[in-house]
Amino acid sequence: MKIAVVDYGSGNLASASRAVAIAAERSGLVADVRVTSDPAEIREASRIVLPGQGAFGDCMEGLSAVPHLRDALEETVDAGTPFLGICVGMQLMAERGLEYGATEGLGWVRGEITRIDAPGLRLPQMGWNGLDFTPGSHHLLGGLVPGDHVYFTHSFALSDGKPSEILATTDYGGPVVALVARDNRAGTQFHPEKSQEVGLAIMRNFLTWAP
What we know:
Elements: E1 2-6, H1 13-26, E2 32-36, H2 39-44, E3 47-50, H3 56-65, H4 69-78, E4 83-86, H5 88-91, E5 96-97, E6 103-104, E7 112-115, E8 125-130, E9 149-154, E10 156-159, E11 166-171, E12 175-182, E13 185-188, H6 196-207
Parallel strand pairs: 1-2, 1-3, 3-4, 4-13, 5-7
Antiparallel strand pairs: 5-6, 7-10, 8-9, 11-12, 12-13
Helix pairs in contact: 1-6
């Protein structure tokens, strides 16, 4: 199994790739995990992970700045390769982001990335928070129970999302989208690579997902 962790100048590449490798080993999978910005390696991958941190617009600009990288990513995912976006990598799946101006996203899930409305609470939301979801609703949530905690660090989140594309939320002054999926595309607003055993379980589920 070839797993591409996309390098476009943003994201916790080392920790994300290490978490993927550990998840593969625990699943008994022989995995070649590569941090790469090479479009050819993206096209050859059997799984694609897109980390991200920072501002939406900067991340989209970085992704688009590497020659042919965005085209390779979109073509490969459109062809059915399972994809996982992490934090801003998940946000880039939306139709557009409204952080420091409007920036078009990949348009893979419905909705916009807007500032969290959490009066009286600190932004960014930073730390551990529980997940709210329907048990058994998706392969990515296999083995998890509602209330399992994962690690967040963000001030913006998906709004006006399509209910059927929202797998899990968390509570931070109200529901905040935590996990989305549509067809072979999935994304976590939280950081599975920083979420210890729960994060590794989600990574293992992603590696065995057959959408």
